[in-house]
């Protein structure tokens, strides 16, 4: 259900939809190069607030292909009031639980265990404060130093164009965040994670928005390169098994620790869209 | 690492180990009837408290067979101090965080989608209070009314021998507990769930212990009957797929909501033993 957006919210929402279009077109192109005619299916969903007011909604994009075993690219624009319990945990929402959020969220589970999986998410949040957040991290079942280095280098250059402190700070943030305490392992080889890039002044919007756009563009530049480099490699049954076990860890992280998942489930988001991050198939020993 | 037990704790621990032996022998017998020589592998684990004092431990029992695709039967006896954050959530631990727990925990994921999966757990907890808790619930991928009725009837009769209020109360508790809010579905067809059957007087131990023993005996009586009734049924690819999707829901419940899983992960239990409840293989659409 449509909610009314102000200029900043409209500009951000439009960008996330454009980025979605560009990413999905590129992923479908990769499928075509592999001789597959797989395409994204788009499933719109509406959200209603508990008081019956319009709560926004989103579009879940899902493709099951030859190279992309399962990839979800979701955009959503939602608004309403946080529950009392949740409001206290959110920046600027303690005394006024109203919120607005628009963003893009992507998780790709690749068929070939040599092709790294990936997660990317960027968003614009408004409570009594306004800020951008997001990040991208690489999750190979079989890590490869060259891929890891290329992925980080591209994010590093995107960050460097905006603030010399961003990359080291956001890389560490990803290392701290994408960690599975009960297994004492990271869920992947990291990337960047950032949150609360706040608009202290109205004029901060343009530069913070430009940074979040550049993170999206960096992702769109580097990830398809890594896919094309590895997608024709052969794999063994043991490597596929290793991937399925590794995906179990990924599911553990997302269900036990991920704040985005909790945010979605607690704010009445679309369950299928939220849990699109879960792997198509996983094993536990 | 061994911890010193008082008489009640010793008696309870001994029973949980005996029950484990009987259950595992029966499950291995079922495998033998199906022409398989699958047997439980037992993996002991030790636990050390953060202050270096003995924290107890347990034995993880795991069998991967022809009928039981993956079944875990764990016993453990642990003691120490709850973290400040966790102590406030536990009965009788708010002002004194010391705890002791001994129990048995079982989850069976069956190969044949017509054979119901099952969970059973009983335990004796000591903080400044002492109580028994536990339950058993049936989790068929393809529910069958006859099996559901037989399972509930056997638990109903075990409860009825102790207290006429137990079955209706504990059945409702299971219905309330084994529920996946974000999907608005129950994780299975229920059973019983109980907690805080407290020892108000020293003399309460015998009757409360007798009830928990009878829950274990009822499980051992009914579940093998259901397995033998269904284990030779044929299944289709579609039914196996339905089971794998259903197992994804089961993993979601255990990782997002299950208090036993949270208890284990937060008290430094053995991760492999705690997460033995996760399915051998699961799928998400």
Automatic annotation (TrEMBL), chains A, B:
<dbReference type="Pfam" id="PF01218">
    <property type="entry name" value="Coprogen_oxidas"/>
</dbReference>
<comment type="similarity">
    <text>Belongs to the aerobic coproporphyrinogen-III oxidase family.</text>
</comment>
<dbReference type="GO" id="GO:0004109">
    <property type="term" value="F:coproporphyrinogen oxidase activity"/>
</dbReference>
<protein>
    <recommendedName>
        <fullName>coproporphyrinogen oxidase</fullName>
        <ecNumber>1.3.3.3</ecNumber>
    </recommendedName>
</protein>
<dbReference type="InterPro" id="IPR001260">
    <property type="entry name" value="Coprogen_oxidase_aer"/>
</dbReference>
<keyword id="KW-0560">Oxidoreductase</keyword>
<keyword id="KW-0627">Porphyrin biosynthesis</keyword>
<dbReference type="InterPro" id="IPR036406">
    <property type="entry name" value="Coprogen_oxidase_aer_sf"/>
</dbReference>
<comment type="pathway">
    <text>Porphyrin-containing compound metabolism; protoporphyrin-IX biosynthesis; protoporphyrinogen-IX from coproporphyrinogen-III (O2 route): step 1/1.</text>
</comment>
<comment type="subunit">
    <text>Homodimer.</text>
</comment>
<keyword id="KW-0350">Heme biosynthesis</keyword>
């Amino acid at each position: 259900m449509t909610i009314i957006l102000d200029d900043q919210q409209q500009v951000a929402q439009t960008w996330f939809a454009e980025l979605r279009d560009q990413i999905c077109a590129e992923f479908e192109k990769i499928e075509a190069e592999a001789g597959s005619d797989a395409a994204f299916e788009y499933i719109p969903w509406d959200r209603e607030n508990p008081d019956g007011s319009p709560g926004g909604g989103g579009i879940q994009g899902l493709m099951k292909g030859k190279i992309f075993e399962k990839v979800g690219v979701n955009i959503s624009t939602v608004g309403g009031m946080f529950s009392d319990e949740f409001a206290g945990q959110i920046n600027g929402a303690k005394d006024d639980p109203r919120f607005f959020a628009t963003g893009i969220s992507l998780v790709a589970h690749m068929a070939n265990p040599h092709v790294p999986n990936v997660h990317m998410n960027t968003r614009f949040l408004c409570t009594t404060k306004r800020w951008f957040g997001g990040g991208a991290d690489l999750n190979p079942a079989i890590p490869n130093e060259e891929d890891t280095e290329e992925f980080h280098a591209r994010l590093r250059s995107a960050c460097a164009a905006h603030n010399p402190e961003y990359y080291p700070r956001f890389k560490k943030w990803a290392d701290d965040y994408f960690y599975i305490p009960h297994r004492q392992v990271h869920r992947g080889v990291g990337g960047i994670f950032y949150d609360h890039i706040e608009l202290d002044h109205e004029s901060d919007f343009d530069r913070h928005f430009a940074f979040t756009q550049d993170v999206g563009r960096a992702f769109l530049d580097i990830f398809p390169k890594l896919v094309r480099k590895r997608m024709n490699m052969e794999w063994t049954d043991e490597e596929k098994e290793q991937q399925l076990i590794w995906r179990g860890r990924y599911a553990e992280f997302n269900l036990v620790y991920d704040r985005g998942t909790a945010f979605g489930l607690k704010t009445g988001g679309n369950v299928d869209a939220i849990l699109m991050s879960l792997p198509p198939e996983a094993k536990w020993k």
